[in-house]
Amino acid sequence: MKIYPIETGNFKLDGGAMFGVVPKVIWNRTNPADENNLIDMALRCLLIEDGDRLILIDNGTGNKQPDKFFSYYYFFGDFSLDASLAKYGFHRDDITDVFLTHLHFDHCGGSIQWNKDRTGYEPAFKNAKFWSNKNHWKWAVEPNPREKASFLTENINPIQESGQLNLVDLPTGDFAKNTPLGFDILFANGHTDKLMIPHIQYQGKTIVFVSDLLPTVGHIPLPYVMGYDTRPLLTMEEKDKFLKIAADNNYFLFFEHDATNELCTIKHTEKGVRLNQTYTFNEVFN
Prior knowledge:
Layout: E1 2-14, H1 15-19, H2 24-27, E2 38-50, E3 53-57, H3 67-71, H4 81-87, E4 97-99, H5 105-108, E5 112-114, E6 121-123, E7 129-133, H6 134-141, H7 153-161, E8 165-168, E9 175-176, E10 184-188, E11 195-202, E12 205-209, H8 232-248, E13 252-254, E14 263-269, E15 272-279, H9 281-284
Parallel strand pairs: 3-4, 4-7, 7-8, 12-13
Antiparallel strand pairs: 1-2, 2-3, 5-6, 9-10, 10-11, 11-12, 13-14, 14-15
């Protein structure tokens, strides 16, 4: 098995929305805002090469939305999905599986693209199975008013229409082992219903793709919860449980949205679980 970080772009979001009730004077220390109160965000995905399978975890925003849509998010930088895949010798047609932690546009937008004539949509990974789960899929196609702007029909419906949609079985508890993807999955419900968080065994270590359970290193303290979360008190419970386990077991947390830090470890302190050390992916894995 080999694993590669895949950079698909950078964008900006309102810092206040990203940190909820935490005052700017505090969160600005770890996630400095610009003059418009916006903080830098990454769209970092993960590629797993395992035998004849090539599994992509999330895929960024894609590029099919109109300019007005992208203007809300201040995209910047030179990263792209195709360039990042090519860096490791791959093409999107090589992808066998696209695992979607959830269906918010910044995680699944790259799944679907315009067709050749720009008259409709088609899967951007023509040879891949797309993986979600039954509860979250229903949550996304019948969205609540709070999340409706994040669940875009053009990102979601064409996946099912293509016949390439597959659903991970839901566990009786919150952790699914021995899944068809070859990694274990933690299910969380604070950010959105049935968010899936992969736990990957690699080179004797556990990599956790933390998705939106922990957007950046600055979100490690327990009350630092996004305003975007549908059930913030539940997020705190889920974070508390997860962070303690991650600290106990020296998990390497892989960040999808931290523009500065790819990986970190965490530790127990008198103030609760806190950052231990940050790393680039290549500093830990090669």
